[in-house]
């Protein structure tokens, strides 16, 4: 990845010095500074940076107007806000104005570096993700079942077709958030779920609700471990899971995923058959660095 060329926009010489030190110490090239709307337009027009760090409080204007001016010059220039101000209304307006990320002062060097690298590595990073995500979740699935039941599941019918499915009875859907957003689905019959719950609990489940709770937690563990494996390969992904959503009934359909890449498989376990499908969107998922 090429070294990012960055302009710092801030009305405080002290803040500019701090941000410059952070950027240069972490391998970025600072190619300009600005403290007013006029300076922003002049400097950005002249040096055409890859990215601009933007304060929200600028004399005679604000960071949002300056951001719009940057994008009027070149909509491909990324803008991240580094500001002491941060509330829900400002965040909403920043996102509406196509700000790529938001960090609250005092800026943490690791946080700044990680955010900029994530933003600037989008295409390269997404291609890396598409080449490894399925094998990582597959590994997590196999490892978890090996620990739970001392058995290795067998994967078959692995494919990238993005088709709808008729549920076997119980579907656990887990959202994935981070640099890219995605989701993973585990679908199985009531009988398979009950067999798994018996093995995990080492007793008969007390209720159907308990079976659902076991399935939610077990699949949450698989998904979380898969994210951890991916993050160890490249920390820029920053993937983590959202709480599981569980659907069950006699006539549930799993709709075609609105995702850019999807991989599915049928998994044969000693408890019964499980359908697993995981996929991601190409566009950035996580916006703020500290959500």
Enumerate how many helices there are, as a single number.
8
Count of discrete domains: 2
**First and last CA, distance:** 25 Å
Described by the principal axes of the CA atoms, the overall outline is elongated
- What would the average pLDDT be, to the nearest integer? 91
Would you count the extended β strands for me? 16
In CATH's first tier, which class of the largest domain applies? Alpha Beta
CATH fold node name of the largest domain: Chemotaxis protein chec
Helical content stands at 40-55%
Quick take:
By secondary structure, the protein is an alpha/beta fold. The chain is built from eight helices and 16 strands. The strands form four sheets. Strands 8, 10, 11, 12, 13, 15 and 16 form a seven-stranded antiparallel beta sheet that branches.
């Amino acid at each position: 990845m090429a070294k990012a060329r960055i302009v710092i926009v801030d009305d405080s010489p002290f803040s500019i010095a701090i941000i410059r030190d952070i950027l240069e110490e972490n391998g970025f090239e600072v190619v300009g500074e600005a403290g007013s709307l006029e300076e922003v337009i002049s400097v950005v027009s002249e040096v055409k940076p890859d990215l601009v760090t933007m304060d929200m409080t600028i004399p005679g204007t604000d960071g949002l107007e300056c951001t719009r001016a940057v994008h009027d010059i070149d909509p491909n220039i990324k803008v991240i806000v580094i500001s002491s101000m941060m509330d829900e209304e400002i965040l909403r307006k920043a996102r509406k104005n196509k700000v790529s990320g938001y960090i609250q002062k005092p800026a943490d060097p690791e946080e700044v570096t990680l955010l900029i690298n994530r933003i600037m590595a989008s295409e390269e990073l997404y291609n890396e993700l598409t080449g490894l995500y399925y094998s990582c979740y597959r590994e997590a699935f196999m490892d978890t079942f090996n620990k739970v039941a001392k058995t290795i599941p067998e994967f078959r019918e692995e494919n990238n077709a993005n088709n709808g499915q008729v549920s076997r009875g119980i579907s656990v859907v887990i959202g994935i958030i981070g640099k890219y957003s995605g989701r993973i689905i585990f679908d199985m019959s009531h009988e398979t779920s009950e067999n798994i719950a018996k093995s995990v609990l080492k007793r008969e489940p007390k209720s159907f609700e308990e079976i659902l709770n076991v399935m939610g937690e077990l699949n949450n563990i698989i998904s979380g471990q898969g994210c951890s494996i991916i993050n160890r390969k490249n920390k820029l992904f920053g993937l983590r899971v959202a709480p599981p959503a569980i659907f069950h009934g006699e006539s549930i359909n799993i709709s075609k995923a609105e995702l850019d890449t999807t991989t599915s498989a049928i998994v044969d376990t000693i408890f019964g058959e499980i359908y697993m499908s995981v996929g991601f969107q190409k566009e950035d998922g996580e916006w703020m660095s500290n959500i």
